[in-house]
Design a protein that fits this description.
The complex is a heterodimer. Chain A is built from 24 helices and ten strands. By secondary structure, chain A is α+β, with helices and mostly antiparallel strands. Chain A folds into four domains: about 240 residues, no CATH class; about 90 residues, no CATH class; about 110 residues, no CATH class; about 130 residues, no CATH class. The longest helix of chain A has about 35 residues. Chain A is flat and about 100 Å long. Chain B is an alpha/beta fold. Chain B has two domains: about 210 residues, Rossmann fold (3-Layer(aba) Sandwich); about 90 residues, 2-Layer Sandwich (Alpha-Beta Plaits). At the A-B interface, helix 1, helix 2 and helix 6 of A face helix 2 and helix 3 of B.
Chain lengths: ~625, ~300
């Protein structure tokens, strides 16, 4: 018998129809069930259209609904659905018996990979195909099928399917245990963001001014977050459009690269790794020390709170030695847990001193780097030429300044002055509290507040700082070299006033929306003004900004927030044409009413008499002392 | 021919296969015997292309079997823990196998329906362990492999079905020249079917011979002597074991029966008879040094 001729299959086989069919038939409850649930959508659409006779639904609103689905619902759904499809498709790798069957079959691993990949992607796309086709038929029957939108949405869905299925495929190739595959997949989708937040949180405990906030610097590596933050819709004046579609394209390409990597890993993978938490031997140390690091950063900070902060009292800055001990203990815990998972045994303690020693070294290096600020984060003030804009939030003021503006220079100067006075500030705030003091006549001399700075860099990254600082009245008004004085200049000075009332892009004042407190009725009253009325009040605002009466800079005053009963805010709408979005956009200028705004209030009294009428007598007298007393 | 050359396989520092070398001649029924943990299943997983050796070679018809679909198409295997899809019936699994093995014989499948008497639409997971094993045989035999590799194949089968399965296998060997490698931890089971035997212990092949070589090379002789004391046997005879019950002496001697009878005839025994040794006895005497291995496979 000539065995060779009759049994030799093609060596270049990349697809096996029997396996493909088997996968789809085995897992039909998943994709069939999802399709069935999805079919509620076209049914609902049909019934709605029938009840309305299809009369009131525009094609543009159908388009915007499709875009809303693609940007809001589908990414989250695909994140979960891909994990289920992937765990089922690659599940055979997690079981020693099934891996034995599959790898005995006369096909190459490449063939198994591509066939399983094809069946997994088919399972992901089938519900969209079924629901999409039915929905399109319904819309077509009523003549409101936006063909271009549907085609575009289909492309984007395919891109996202490739991304999420590639991620679960990669997870399946590095692990031999279905639960671990799911854990790696979900962790992988958020790991960069989690690490960002953890390191920020950890650093902020030691480093002066480092904000305990998510920076988003590495968000691209957390795809689902990045997609939700960058893949959105906007209105161009006529219809809703998609923005950030490029990221889906880039992610789809990344997905293809990850699939190629997965294939390489699969070809190297040992069949005997079925059931192992980590199936690739070179990944085991990374897993071990990765778990140790994550455990140290998360549980270490929790442990510090329990064993140090609560018994010894809270402080703005943490103590490095106790924190290092807490991180080390929890990192070692993580290390041993990871070792137990890898060995599938509790006996991991004996004869293993290199691992714990390495973990300790990592913790010491980490704490050392953070404590001694080896990357110079504390002293870093961004070069304004690289800054797009800077957002400042201080006391009752929050605004942004363009990187090339004089105001940004004032802010940067104040920032540098703060850094220069680090020792002074830390000494004043390190005991966990700062007393408000008053002089003999009852005037407040010192106070404490927090300054937030966010530099939005031209490369898209953010540099964020937070300073808890003491302020001294004398320095605030009289000592020009102090950060107190420079901050007052930056936040309440003429540049800030001018920036607060001048729109960046808006060139045509459209309208004014205002709110104020009516003293008689106790209600918040709103009003709208257009064209001339709005312009007159805006002119008053500009006059106040020029006269330096826009803000009350005496934040030490005990009745600063009382404002003599004058409470309200104004929101001016400015229109402009955006070359970026090719549409008309609106920019808002918002200001809070302050008793110092004499010109604005005068215009407001003329244009909105009921506002003046709603003030208490004391407030009227305070706001218009000359007029009111003369009338009286 | 299947050739395994100096294969080493280590699992987490444990050397499961330790420079293992063996050869399965074409058309042979090769019994692989060894105690639990000797490495039988591990070498079978190498032979079927599941495992990749750390070093050494596993060749089927001169080519490595790992990631070689052409060579794997020549093989079909029944592992000790045969896998089937949880929701699959016999016919479902048949379709699956048919999609992979180009020589899958549909007619044979129909013919075996009567032999195995298992409803083809019944879910495999609902069948007894013995019936599942029958399904495995049914489908594997339909693949018409050149090399049939069986790991503990008749575990769980009743005696009638064991006989049936062996007879089907033997028929394939005689009709198509199929080569069979069968592993077991029980030597007695293989004695009737194998023509080649290899003994594994601690990841190595201790001994590998054809059954005829073994049986021709070692003889059990029973002799009754005239005197109470037996005469001294010729010094060049390799006597492996001597025992006696009354005046009946039993010798295990290396050599051919006819030659030994001629050599002992001058000593004028009252009775001299050459008896066949069971495979079990041959291994006991051949592998006297490997006490554990021998004890494990014959008890």
């Amino acid at each position: 018998m000539n065995w060779e001729v009759s049994t030799m299959p093609s060596k270049k086989s990349y697809f096996n129809p029997a396996l493909y069919r088997k996968n789809l038939s085995r897992f039909w409850p998943l994709w069939g069930g999802v399709s069935l649930v999805g079919c509620v959508a076209p049914l609902y659409m049909l019934l709605t259209l029938l009840s309305r006779g299809g009369a009131y639904i525009q094609m543009s609103s159908v388009s915007s609904s499709i875009y809303a689905l693609v940007t809001i619902l589908i990414p989250g759904f695909l994140l979960v659905y891909a994990s289920l499809c992937g765990v089922l498709t690659w599940g055979y790798l997690s079981n020693a018996r099934s891996v034995g069957l599959y790898h005995t079959l006369p096909v190459s691993r490449t063939c198994l990979f591509f066939t399983s990949l094809a069946s997994g992607l088919t399972m992901m796309l089938l519900p969209f195909l079924i629901v999409g086709t039915l929905s399109s038929l319904v819309l077509l029957c009523f003549g409101i099928l936006p063909l271009k939108t549907v085609a575009w949405a289909a492309v984007l869905v395919i891109g996202m399917c490739v991304l999420f299925f590639s991620l679960i495929t990669l997870a399946a190739m590095v692990s031999g245990n279905s639960f671990a595959v799911l854990a790696f997949y979900y962790l992988g989708n958020f790991l960069a963001a989690i690490l960002d937040w953890l390191l920020s949180s950890f650093s902020s405990g030691f480093l002066f001014g480092i904000a305990n906030s998510y920076t988003g610097r590495v968000e691209f590596f957390s795809p689902v977050l990045y997609i939700y933050n960058h893949f959105t819709t906007y209105y161009d004046g006529e219809a809703y459009q998609l923005s950030g579609t490029w990221c889906i394209g880039v992610y789809a390409l990344v997905g293809i690269v990850l699939l190629a990597l997965s294939l390489l890993l699969y070809r190297r993978r040992k069949s005997e790794s079925a059931g192992d938490v980590v199936a690739q031997s070179w990944l085991k140390p990374i897993f071990r020390y990765g778990v140790a690091l994550l455990s140290g950063l998360t549980l270490g900070q929790v442990l510090y709170t329990f064993v140090y902060t609560i018994p010894f009292g809270a402080s703005r800055y943490k103590s490095i030695v106790p924190m290092a001990v807490c991180v080390l203990v929890t990192a070692l815990l993580g290390y041993y847990v990871a070792s137990m998972l890898l060995k599938k045994s509790l006996r991991v303690f004996r004869g293993n001193w290199q691992g714990p020693l390495t973990t300790a070294a990592i913790v010491v290096i980490l704490c050392g780097c953070v404590s001694f600020d080896v990357f110079g984060s504390v002293s870093y003030v961004p070069d304004l030429q690289e800054v797009d804009d800077v957002i400042i939030s201080f006391y009752d003021r929050s605004f942004s300044a363009s990187g090339d503006s004089r105001l940004a220079q004032e802010i940067a100067a104040a920032h540098r002055a703060i850094l220069k006075d680090e020792a002074y500030i830390r000494s004043m705030t390190s005991d966990g509290g700062y007393a408000y003091t008053m002089d003999e006549s009852g005037v407040q001399e010192t106070m404490e507040t927090t300054l937030y700075l966010s530099y939005r860099m031209k490369d898209g990254t953010m540099v964020q700082r937070r300073y808890d600082m003491p302020l001294v009245r004398d320095r605030w008004y009289n000592q020009p070299d102090t950060f107190d004085y420079l901050l007052r200049q930056a936040v309440y000075g003429p540049e800030a006033s001018d920036a607060a009332v001048t729109p960046v892009l808006g060139d045509t004042l459209d309208s004014l929306y205002g709110e104020y407190w009516n003293n008689d009725t106790g209600d918040v009253v709103t009003f709208n003004l257009t064209s001339d009325g709005a312009q007159r009040i805006y002119d008053g605002l500009l006059a106040d900004a020029a006269a330096g009466t826009l803000y009350d800079d005496d934040i030490f005053r005990y009745d600063y927030y009382y404002n003599n009963g004058i409470s309200g805010n104004l929101e001016f709408s400015f229109r402009y044409w955006s070359e970026e979005t090719m549409s008309r956009e609106v920019e808002f200028v918002r200001v809070d009413l302050s008793p110092t705004m004499t010109n604005t209030m005068a215009a407001l009294k003329e244009e909105v008499p009921e506002w003046f009428a709603g003030l208490s007598e004391a407030s009227q007298l305070s706001a218009f002392p000359d007029t009111v007393s003369a009338e009286t | 021919m299947i050739e395994v050359k100096n294969v080493v396989k280590t699992f987490d520092g444990f050397r499961a296969l330790d420079d293992l070398t063996m050869t399965v001649p074409e058309g042979a029924i090769y019994g692989l015997v060894g105690p639990n943990g000797a490495g039988k299943s591990t070498i079978i997983r190498h032979l079927t292309g599941i495992y990749r050796p750390d070093s050494g070679q596993v060749l089927v018809d001169g080519e490595g079997v790992y990631e070689n679909p052409g060579r794997k198409a020549l093989l079909a295997a029944i592992p000790d823990d045969w896998y089937y899809f949880p929701s699959a019936s016999v016919v479902d699994m048949m379709r699956f196998y048919r999609g992979f093995y180009p020589r899958f014989d549909g007619e044979r499948y129909e013919k075996f329906k009567e032999v195995f008497s298992i409803p083809e639409k019944s879910l495999i997971r609902r069948l007894s362990k013995g019936m599942q094993k029958q399904v495995a045989f049914w489908l594997t035999m339909c693949c018409r492999p050149k090399y049939l590799i069986l790991d503990e194949p008749v575990d769980g089968l009743d005696p009638v079905m064991r006989r049936q399965v062996w007879s089907l296998m033997m028929a394939d060997v005689s009709e198509y020249g199929t080569t069979v490698l069968v592993s077991s931890h029980n030597l007695r089971e293989l004695e009737d079917v194998c023509d080649h035997v290899g003994i594994l212990s601690r990841g190595r092949v201790l001994l590998e011979r054809s059954l005829s070589d073994l049986q021709e090379n070692i003889v059990k002789l029973q002799a009754v002597w005239k005197d109470q004391e037996p005469p001294a046997l010729p010094g060049d005879l390799e006597v492996l074991h001597t025992s006696h019950v009354g005046r009946v002496y039993t010798y295990i001697i290396r050599g051919a029966a006819r030659v030994l009878e001629q050599r002992l005839a001058p000593l004028q025994p009252l009775m001299l008879e050459a008896l066949p040794l069971s495979l079990e006895e041959i291994f006991i005497y051949e592998l006297g040094g490997e006490h554990y291995a021998v004890k494990e496979i014959v008890l």
